[in-house]
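fyi for ur records
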Amino acid sequence: GAGDFKAEASAGDLSDPEAEGKVDTDDVPSPSGLSRLRALAGRTITIAGIVTALTLKTTKRGDRFAIFTLEDQYGSLKVIVWPETFSRANGLLRNDALVVVRGKLELEENAATLIAEEILTLEELKTRMTKQVIIRVKSGAVTPANVDRLYGVLDRYRGSADVLFEIECAGGILVRIRPNPFVKITPSPEALSEIRRHLEGCEIRLVNGRRP
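which gave:
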């Protein structure tokens, strides 16, 4: 069911101030100079970059692990992916792949190494960092049948991101509808694609929040 709603109406400009589906990833640091890395030693950080010099190795127990260099326009950083993390990487590690690495930074003398705890794609990072999904649609598309289909999507892709509907009505009125607070979504590409299919012409904005 649709559950309880909270609605508010406002008149004014209905233009979209943000690009559809845009997520700001400024919180993701990049490999940089040793001075900055020294300040981050011992902390868990998240870094995006290109995989280079990938080497796959095997422990004495027969478990596979990886060592590679993560590069971007600012510099490079050595990354070690021990077997447990490597087994969860789902084949993401290959040369020239764009990945996000979350792990603990270790610094010895003048050498920095990131001990990976998690390997993600950028899409997975966007999904995880999204705090709210705003769905804007014209009132004509909000039919009972479409609403039922939409809540079917929300039910299948339950997650942690809040949902806000913005309904464009006649006369420049924008009605904002907040579903029951228990209605939350995982804004994966598949979920967003289904929403767009059921609400033709809708615009979706992802509001970014810091990872805990």
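Residues 144-156 form the longest helix (13 residues). thats all i got for now
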